[in-house]
Design a protein that fits this description.
- By secondary structure, this protein is of the alpha+beta class.
- It has 2 domains: about 1-195, no CATH class; about 200-270, Alpha-Beta Plaits (2-Layer Sandwich), CATH 3.30.70.120.
- It is about 65% helix and about 10% strand.
- It has a 4-stranded antiparallel sheet.
- β2 and β3 form a beta hairpin.
- The radius of gyration is 24 Å and the shape is elongated.
- The model has no long low-confidence stretch (mean pLDDT about 85).
């Protein structure tokens, strides 16, 4: 139950990050950076604003959710349904309680940074939690089930097409900024995911591994693997301790080894893909 609560708290936080970037920065500036929100902005403009972008997001997401439930059945994630309704509902609510008639500033590049940054951080949190806000993610699930298409390329092609429509719809400046935002989006999302998952992989070559093992297990509440080794130059017997820690734990272990075994040889490597007990699941 605690894990479920934690998952849905993260899903909520991730979705709200997306909402902030979309409603306060993408919508007022007409940054059509692909996806359902980009499509909603273009259609809303073509309809002369008769239907708001937030309302169109709700309509399109609802249609896609129904299609997803029919086509995907049990494979369709409850987390995607939750994220989709939370996104649509919050956008609709903000239209009522905080209407945005114009951008916050007169600096389009500054606005673009937040229009890309907030959704990217939100998407990273959602992906890490196994969820999404629906939209084109539902299309990706359907394509994955019934075709051999490269999903990433298919979705990127769709985003490119929608972004190119921003040029005739919103003008050259907004179109160029939207295209720049599209290019930055995938990079920022990848960087955010990697940063969230970043851990430190320790390889410690020492004379005595007992004290180091004890500190890792008792103080840091982690485990380690110990191997026997022989120094190529000295010919002496050595121990190799292998462990993975988060950044705070890594600082503590490095300081402990420095104080307890100053002659130990330590290699510390950044890693963001760790699968196994205590980290990501193996399924």
């Amino acid at each position: 139950m605690k894990e479920k609560i934690k998952e849905y708290v993260l899903l909520t936080v991730g979705t709200l990050f997306v909402v902030v970037g979309v409603y306060f920065f993408k919508f007022p500036n007409n940054y059509a950076i692909g996806g359902v929100t980009g499509l909603a902005m273009i259609v809303s403009n073509l309809l002369g604003g008769a239907i708001s972008s937030a309302t169109l997001v709700t309509i399109v997401n609802t249609i896609l959710l129904v299609i997803g439930l029919i086509v995907l059945g049990k494979e369709f994630s409850i987390k995607t349904i939750y994220g989709s309704f939370l996104l649509s509902g919050t956008l609709q609510l903000l239209e009522v309680i905080y209407p945005m008639d114009a951008p916050f500033t007169t600096e389009p590049v500054l606005e673009l940074a937040f229009a890309v940054g907030f959704p990217a951080i939100g998407a990273a949190i959602l992906f890490n939690s196994g969820g999404s806000t629906g939209g084109t993610d539902i299309v990706a699930m359907i394509l994955k089930k019934y075709s051999s298409f490269d999903i990433g390329q298919a979705l990127f092609s769709t985003d490119v097409f929608l972004t190119l429509l921003a040029f005739p719809t919103f003008g050259m400046q907004t179109g160029l900024l939207s295209f720049l935002g599209l290019v930055l989006k995938s990079t920022v999302v990848d960087s955010a995911i990697e940063s969230m998952n970043l851990h430190k992989y320790f390889t410690v070559i020492c004379d005595d591994a007992e004290s180091i093992n004890r500190y890792i297990v008792k103080e840091l509440r982690r485990s380690a693997t110990v191997c026997d080794a022989t120094g190529a130059f000295s010919g002496q017997n050595k121990k190799i301790v292998l462990t993975v820690l988060n950044r705070a734990q890594a600082v503590q272990l490095r300081q402990f080894i420095k104080n307890e075994q100053p002659t130990a040889f330590i290699l510390i490597t950044n890693t963001s893909e760790i699968i196994g007990r205590g980290f990501r699941g193996t399924n």
